Amino acid sequence: VHPNVSQGCQGGCATCSDYNGCLSCKPRLFFVLERIGMKQIGVCLSSCPSGYYGTRYPDINKCAKCKADCDTCFTRNFCTKCKSGFYLYSGKCLEKCPDGLEANNHTMECTSIVHCEISEWSPWSPCTKKGKTCGFKRGNEVRVREIIQHPSARGNPCPATSESRKCIVQRKRCQKEGKGKKNREEKRKKSNKDESKETRQESKGRAARRQNREQRENNNKMQPKKRKAPNKEQDLAPVDTAH
C-alpha cells in the first residue's frame, strides 16, 4: 500500500488519502469527486447529488455528471428535471416546446394543449322582471351551462356560460307579500271556529235532549196511578118490581 493511502477511513471510504480524500468506497456506495477551489476531493455517498446520475460496476460505483441543461437525470441522455429556462420533454431539456405542445411554467415541462369543454345548455328559466314573476307583461328568461374542462394557456377559451332573451307572459297581479298567508290563516281560524261552534251546538242539543228525557222520566214516577172508572151500565142494573 502506498504510504499516503490509509485503511482506517471515515465517511464510507474503503481506502483514502490525506490529500485526495476517498479513493474507493464501501459496497453499495457511490464514489464522486467534489471540487473545492482548484482541488478535487473524493467522497462516498449513498445516492448521487443533484446534477449527477449513478452507474454501478463490479469494481466500483460512480456518480457521473448530467448534461449541462439537466438538473437531475436518470442517465446522461435522459433528464428528469431541467435547469431554469429549459422545459422537459421526453427526457430532454428544450428551450422551446415542439408544435402541438405548450410550456408549463409551473412544472417546467412541455404538455399537451387543453381546450375548453362545456356542458349542454340548461332549460330556460321562468320569465322574470326585477326578480318577480308577476305584475308585468315583458320580462327576461335565462339559461346557463357549466365549464367541464378549463383550457390551458394556448387552448381554445371558453364561450359564454349564460344567455338571456326577452319573453312575454300573461299579465297577472302580484299577490301582496304576506296577504296570501294571512288569508290562509284567517280561513283556517274561521274553519276552526265554525267547527268549534258546530261542536258546541251539537253538545248543547244532546244535553238538552238528555235533560228532557230525564225530566219526563221523573214526572212519570211522581204522578199517582189513576183508578179505573166504574162501569155505569153494571151499577144501574134493572130493579125487580114484581113485588
UniProtKB/TrEMBL annotation:
Q: Name one Pfam family in it.
A: Furin-like_2
Q: Name one GO molecular function term.
A: signaling receptor binding
Domain called Spondin-like TSP1: residue spans: 116-170
R-spondin Fu-CRD domain boundaries:
11-110
User: By its UniProt entry, which InterPro entries does this protein fall under?
Assistant: Furin_repeat, Growth_fac_rcpt_cys_sf, R-spondin, Rspo_Fu-CRD_dom, TSP1_rpt, TSP1_rpt_sf, TSP1_spondin_dom
Report the Gene3D superfamilies cross-referenced here: Hormone Receptor, Insulin-like Growth Factor Receptor 1, Chain A, domain 2 (2.10.220.10), Thrombospondin type-1 (TSP1) repeat (2.20.100.10)
State the source organism's domain of life. Eukaryota
Q: Where is this region: Disordered?
A: 169-243
Q: Where is the composition biased (Basic and acidic residues)?
A: 175-219
| Example GO biological process | positive regulation of non-canonical Wnt signaling pathway
Family annotation (SUPFAM superfamilies): Growth factor receptor domain (SSF57184), TSP-1 type 1 repeat (SSF82895)
Q: Name one GO cellular component term.
A: extracellular region
Q: Where in the cell is it found?
A: Secreted
Q: What does the UniProt keyword field contain?
A: Disulfide bond, Glycoprotein, Heparin-binding, Repeat, Secreted, Sensory transduction, Signal, Wnt signaling pathway
Similarity comment: Belongs to the R-spondin family.
Q: How does it assemble?
A: Interacts with the extracellular domain of FZD8 and LRP6. It however does not form a ternary complex with FZD8 and LRP6. Interacts with WNT1. Binds heparin. Interacts with LGR4, LGR5 and LGR6.
Functionally, this protein is described as follows: Activator of the canonical Wnt signaling pathway by acting as a ligand for LGR4-6 receptors, which acts as a key regulator of angiogenesis. Upon binding to LGR4-6 (LGR4, LGR5 or LGR6), LGR4-6 associate with phosphorylated LRP6 and frizzled receptors that are activated by extracellular Wnt receptors, triggering the canonical Wnt signaling pathway to increase expression of target genes. Also regulates the canonical Wnt/beta-catenin-dependent pathway and non-canonical Wnt signaling by acting as an inhibitor of ZNRF3, an important regulator of the Wnt signaling pathway.
- Spell out the protein name for this chain: R-spondin-3
Gene behind this protein? Rspo3
